[in-house]
Amino acid sequence: MKLSNMLISTLREVPAEAEIPSHQLMLRAGMMRKMASGVYNFMPSGIRVLKKIENIVREEMDNTGAQEFLASALLPAELWMESGRWEAMGEEMFRLKDRNDRDFCLGPTHEEVFTDIARNEIKSYKQLPLNLYQIQTKYRDERRPRFGVMRSREFIMKDAYSFDKDQNGLDVSYMKMYEAYTNIFKKCSLDCSAVEADSGAMGGSGSAEFMVKSEVGEDEVVFCSCCNYAANMEKAPAISEYQAEETYLELKKTHTPEVRSVEELVKFFNATEKKFAKTLIYKADGKVIAVMVRGDRAVNEIKVINAIGGAIEFEMANVETVKNATSAEVGFAGPVGLKADILLVDEEVSKMYNFIIGANETGFHYENVNYGRDFTGKIGDFRNVTEGDKCPKCQGTLTIARGVEVGHIFKLGTKYSASMGATFIDENGEDKPLEMGCYGIGINRTMAAIIEQHHDENGITWPLAVAPYQAIVVPVVTKDEEQMRVAEELYCKLKQIGVEVLMDDRNERVGVKFKDSDLIGIPMRITVGKKISEGKVEFKLRTNSENEIISIENVVDRVKSEFAKNNLSL
Ligand code: ATP
Ligand code: MG
């Protein structure tokens, strides 16, 4: 493609609304434009990248034996009412009515649809296992669309649904997807880890999130510095740090006027945060839940919700509720004499000695408190892992990094098949619900994540496998006939062998041309200038600051060698 014919407009300024590099660069490089909040149009160069990612995904899915499908995006409400998600999806679902006043939605995900397809099409164990996937547009009215296509309201997802006759079959299908996902993200040059995830509202018995390490990530991921352990913060079990044994001292109530926060307590008592246990009060479906963790720890709300058997509404208690439960002002909560429906005590607290807690009385704390003697509760793991904690798998220490979730795989089991009657006849003639798995990848989010990991101060540095174009030929002076002739010849030769190549034939200064090709992130640049008189041109990799001077006849081989280096064929 010649740049003079291409619809491309690059921006020198950083658009004010874009906070993160991928969003800024996708706009600046002219890959997409905003239509509305969380809704984007993809420009010719942007769509090329999306298609490349889609094709990598398609190839890996096909390799596992999964079959491509295309379901509709416009879905009747009845299907969602059957599963109970018409209500549960709440405001995230885009809803609409047809001319006959029938309810529809724009699909945010397709478990119901594929369960419906399965119950109509699958009759016998002989048709199993089966995995159907699609690459299709999804709609979610996100509360906070942001960061461009990282969290948009319309996006392309690859979603796959597996159907097996039993749990062993599901395990196999799940592992196949796990491996395919690992290959996909590797081919996209993403530094990505599969982490154990909380399957939360989706139910089921196993789930992993594929997380790309990035500062702009919304999730926290826990990594071991020694082994390959990685887990979502929501799920990562915390290993208690035990304190040296002490003999129990006598419980003492101490006047602590205006001393409420752990920080203030540390000063007042001249002790470390580890000497305190804080009591946090939550409201879960109308019940008062108190949770105790050591002074320097944070409560893990997901663990708490799981421990109380789930909750539809869960939030920090308001001042009123705290005052009622503690009979004191906020800041003096403690387990002794607390009016709570459930008291959860982090295991670490139960192993502390002579510690300090709020006394449920304004202006007072207890000293020398000991679990068992002074109070009891339900002991468990209710805290977040922190940097430096022990790894649950080995003796290594844990670190915490931010990550972007690009893919997610779930074992659904019979959650949908049982409730929607998707059954099959097994070998013994019995009717059984299908064992299901579901597997998603955000295509646009993957594109943004690649940019987060592949950019520099001049623009995007696309990995060859997903670049919109792989090479660009830049004649320095467009008016120079000889330069244009050589450039045209190289352009045609590269095109002929299958390289996706651009030629910057615009009548622009060469500096402008370089800036644009760097911003758009073309991996290989061939500059045709004065040196053609010696039969030479410049070859430059986008990720390399050095120019190579090579002879014109070697350009094709040099380009080919980059394909070989990246395990890509031409
Ligand atoms: P998140 O927690 O980020 O909202 P999710 O758990 O809702 O993600 P899934 O329902 O598992 O996401 O969807 C599968 C994949 O679709 C995600 O891993 C992600 O890559 C992508 N995805 C989900 N929501 C969005 C969105 N609003 N914009 C872009 N991609 C998305
Ligand atoms: Mg979501």
The end-to-end distance, rounded to whole angstroms, is 18 Å
CATH superfamily of the largest domain: Bira Bifunctional Protein, Domain 2
Radius of gyration: 29 Å
Instruction: Give the overall silhouette.
Output: globular
User: Which structural category fits the helices and strands?
Assistant: alpha+beta
Largest sheet: 9 strands, mixed
Per CATH, the architecture of the largest domain is 2-Layer Sandwich
Can you describe what's shown?
- By secondary structure, this protein is α+β, with helices and mostly antiparallel strands.
- The chain has 3 domains: 16-220 and 401-452, BirA Bifunctional Protein, domain 2; 252-380, YbaK/aminoacyl-tRNA synthetase-associated domain (YbaK protein), CATH 3.90.960.10; 469-565, Rossmann fold (3-Layer(aba) Sandwich), CATH 3.40.50.800.
- Helix content is 27%, strand content 29%.
- The protein contains 15 helices and 31 strands.
- Strands 3, 7, 8, 9, 10, 11, 12, 21 and 24 form a 9-stranded mixed beta sheet that branches. A 5-stranded mixed beta sheet has the order 16-14-15-17-20, sandwiched between helices.
- The longest helix is centred in the first third of the chain and has 21 residues, at 167-187.
- It is globular and about 95 Å long.
- Mean pLDDT is 94; it is low at 199-204.
- Bound molecules: adenosine-5'-triphosphate and magnesium ion (MG).
- Residues 109, 140, 142, 151-152, 155, 157, 405-408, 440-442, 444-445 line the site of adenosine-5'-triphosphate.
